[in-house]
Each structure stands twice: as structure tokens, then as C-alpha cells.
User: What shape does this take?
Amino acid sequence: MRKTVLLAAACLFTPLAIAAADEGAAAPLDWQHWQAGNEVSNTASLQRGARNFFGYCAGCHSLKYLRYSRLASDLRISPDQLKADLLPAGATPADYVKSSLAADDAVAWFGKVPPDLSLIARARGPNHVYQFLKTFYADPSTPTHSNNLALVNPAMPAVLSDLEGVKEAVFRNVEVTVDGSVTTEKRFDHFVTTVPGRLNAAQFDGFVRDTVNFLDYVGEPAQVERRSIGVWVVLFLLVFTWIALLLKKEYWKDVH
Ligand code: HEC
Assistant: This one.
């Protein structure tokens, strides 16, 4: 009996052990399949995302279709909090979220104007934005001294490196055969953190997910409201069905 159990265990675990060893050696970091996994009904996450946006992105990026007042009511931010934490000096709640960066300064510093982010999560998808924010790495050959896997040679500097730390990308040479001739290609393999940031990996991941969640909300603010209306519609239908059943019972009582 013991022998059988041992044998079964050996059969079960050997392939797993081999697979694990293999993965450590060969599997490159699968960043193209990373998912933002965001949830716009999570108001606390949206509030944190808004705080991240105003702290780290609004200096360069605008949200030109979003008014501060709308943001405050959707995210349940009180007028006092709005004034204290988010409204720039001189702005009113009815204003749209603009960046303080002047277009000609942007061109002088970055070579282009940072895009408005109102629709970025809809245009490129939340997963792309998530992958973009998580794949900056040090690259001394570019003007910003950084590069990115999701957007090669971006004009945007690695603005979150004080939080995340500085990563270096490790590439490996892969032999590929094209039309019968063998060439070597440089492929990304994994990151190595060379300077630690203020946040650990899990905290930084949460920071990025909240920020992407917020940008997803900004792309379609009505989705927050629609979801809460949806709950009431379903509740109404359930109650209505129950009343209809009671009525039917009542009517048929007389017929029988
Ligand atoms: C110092 C200015 C600056 C800051 C701060 C900044 N960005 Fe950018 N961002 C840029 C520039 C410039 C571009 C244009 C990049 C390009 O097209 O090469 C850009 C592009 C983008 C894009 C488009 C990427 C794509 O695939 O086209 C996204 C998304 C983005 N930024 C998100 C953010 C978020 C989120 C933050 C805050 C955490 C942020 N940015 C902070 C300057 C900035």
C-alpha cells in the first residue's frame, strides 16, 4: 500500500518539478498578457486612482472631458475634500481637468505634447495602459534615460521610478530561421531591479491598478452610475415578478 502511494506521488510530482525547473530557466516574463483586472464599481480604488493621477500625472496630462464636479459626485468626494485635495488654485468645480503644462514647453522638453488621457483607456484598452506603466526600464541611450516594452522609445519619462524603483531589462539572443537563413534576434527576457523604490512590488502593483481603474472610469464616467442603476432594475424586476405571482394566485382562486 505504502509503495503504491509513493509511486503515485512520484508520478504526480515529477512532471511538475521538471516543468518548474524549466520555467525558471527559460520562460521569459509574459508582460504582453498582463491584465489590468480593474473594477470601476470599486469606489475606494477609484478614489485612490484619482489621488495618484493628480499627484503623478496631472502635471503633464489633462482629462479634457471631465469636470471636477462630476468627478467629485461620482467618486463621493465631498466639496471640502475636492477643494482641499484636488482643485488647483484658481479653478472652480465646473472646470474641466486641465494640465498646468503649456504645449510649447511640452514640445521643448519632451518633443511632443503629452496626450489627453480622457479616452486613453478606451482607445488603447486598460490592459495596454497597465502594461505601459509597469514596463519602464533604464536605458541610457534615450533622451529620457528610460525605455518601455509596451511603447518603444516613449517621450514620457519613467515618472513612477521613485515609487517602483529602477529596473533594468535583460534581453537574450534567440536564433530564428527566416526563409531558410538563421539570424539572431534580441528578445526581452526579464527585469532586474537595480535601485529599490519607496513601494514594494505588491504596493506598486496596487498603485498602478488603481490608476488604470481611474482612467477606465474617466473614459466612460456613466458606467459607474449605470452599474448602480442596473442593481435597482434587477431588484425591481424581482419584486415585480413576486407581486405578479401573488396576483395570479389571487385571480385563479376564484376561477377554480
Ligand atoms: C513629465 C510629463 C509626464 C508625466 C508626469 C506623465 N506623462 Fe504620460 N506621457 C507623457 C508624454 C510626453 C507622452 C507621449 C509619449 C509618446 O507618445 O511617446 C505620454 C504618454 C502617455 C500614455 C500613452 C501611452 C501610449 O501607449 O500611447 C499614457 C497611457 C500615459 N502617458 C499615462 C500616464 C500616467 C498614468 C501618468 C501618471 C502616473 C503619466 N502618464 C505621467 C508625459 C508624461
Q: What stands out?
A: Residues 17-24 have pLDDT under 50 and may be disordered. The pocket of heme C is lined by residues 56-57, 59-61, 110, 112, 114-115, 117, 120, 124, 129, 132-133, 151, 154-157, 159-160, 211 (CB under 6 Å). The CA atoms of residues 154 and 196 lie 22 Å apart. DSSP finds ten helices and six strands in the chain.
